[in-house]
Design a protein that fits this description.
Elements lengths: L1 E6 L10 H9 L3 E2 L3 E5 L3 H12 L15 E6 L2
Antiparallel strand pairs: 1-3, 1-4, 2-3
Length: 77
């Protein structure tokens, strides 16, 4: 399955920097404009690798007005 990630400008700024996106790309993620995707066996596996590579918490709550900064979802083959 393809695990997709996108970033929300929660709180008025972007949460990931260029070096974090470079780490994702180096690990085989297809990186686009504040989003990325890669094949995994499960959504949880993708989130776990994403956390390892970025050093961020995939369940970060973000600010009250803008919501969570990170969204993850799976898309079948």
């Amino acid at each position: 399955m393809n695990v997709h990630f996108s970033e929300n400008n929660s709180g008025g700024s972007w949460w990931l920097d260029e070096s974090q996106y470079n780490a994702l790309a180096a690990a085989g993620w297809e990186v686009g404009d504040r989003k990325a995707k890669k094949k995994f066996n499960s959504l949880e596996e993708g989130e776990k690798e994403w956390e390892y590579l970025t050093g961020e918490n995939s369940n970060e709550e973000g600010c009250e007005c803008c919501g969570r900064p990170y969204q993850f979802w799976d898309e079948g083959e």
